[in-house]
């Protein structure tokens, strides 16, 4: 299992199980024409959290908007987003949990506790 797969496994366990688009077992019920921003932009999200260098949630949110939402078709030129307003973007809704997942994984890596998990 590589690091990205590990992040996704953690997200399925901790986010998808409680997501409004999930089935409580970690499976996604979005239709094939819909895309989860969390899934599509996972590498960018990991990079934003890893390079945020702040514990301020507002600051992390600002960086998410600037580096991830800007890539998303739902974000309008005035930086508004219908899904954000309606609370139906899983990335926006569960971002605090996602930050913790990424930070925890990075901490474990730094402590070399997960070496064996990725060999
Ligand atoms: S929308 Fe995203 S976070 Fe929600 S269940 Fe589907 S894949 Fe998981
Ligand atoms: S909040 Fe809106 S613009 Fe940002 S990722 Fe979600 S759907 Fe896309």
Please explain how this structure is put together:
The protein has 119 residues and is an all-alpha fold. It has a domain at 33-113. The protein contains 7 helices and no strands. The protein has helices at 3-16, 37-40, 42-50, 57-67, 82-86, 90-93, 95-110. Helix 1 (3-16) runs antiparallel to helix 7 (95-110). The protein is globular, with a radius of gyration of 15 Å. The protein starts with a helix and ends in a 9-residue tail after the last helix. Bound molecules: iron/sulfur cluster (2 copies). One iron/sulfur cluster binds at residues 15-16, 19, 21-22, 28, 30, 36, 38-39, 90.
Keywords summarizing the entry:
mainly alpha; 7 helices; single chain; 53% helix; 119 residues; binds iron/sulfur cluster; 0% strand
Task: Describe the structure concisely for a colleague.
The chain is mostly helical and 119 residues long.
Structural class assignment = mainly alpha
Instruction: Name every ligand kind in the structure.
Output: iron/sulfur cluster
| Count of alpha/pi helices | 7
Beta-strand residue fraction: under 5%
Quote the average pLDDT. 90
- The whole-angstrom Rg is 15 Å
SSE inventory with pairings:
Blueprint: H1 3-16, H2 37-40, H3 42-50, H4 57-67, H5 82-86, H6 90-93, H7 95-110
One iron/sulfur cluster binds at residues 15-16, 19, 21-22, 28, 30, 36, 38-39, 90.
């Amino acid at each position: 299992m590589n690091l990205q797969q590990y992040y996704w496994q953690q997200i399925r366990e901790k986010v998808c199980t409680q997501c409004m688009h999930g089935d409580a077992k970690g499976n996604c019920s979005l239709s094939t024409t819909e895309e989860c921003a969390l899934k599509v932009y996972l590498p960018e999200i990991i990079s934003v959290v890893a390079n945020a260098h702040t514990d301020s949630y507002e600051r992390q949110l600002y960086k998410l908007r600037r580096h991830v939402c800007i890539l998303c078709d739902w974000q309008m030129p005035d930086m508004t987003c219908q899904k954000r307003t309606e609370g139906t973007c899983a990335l926006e809704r569960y971002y605090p949990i996602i930050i913790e997942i990424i930070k925890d994984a990075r901490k474990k890596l730094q402590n070399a506790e997960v070496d064996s998990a990725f060999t």
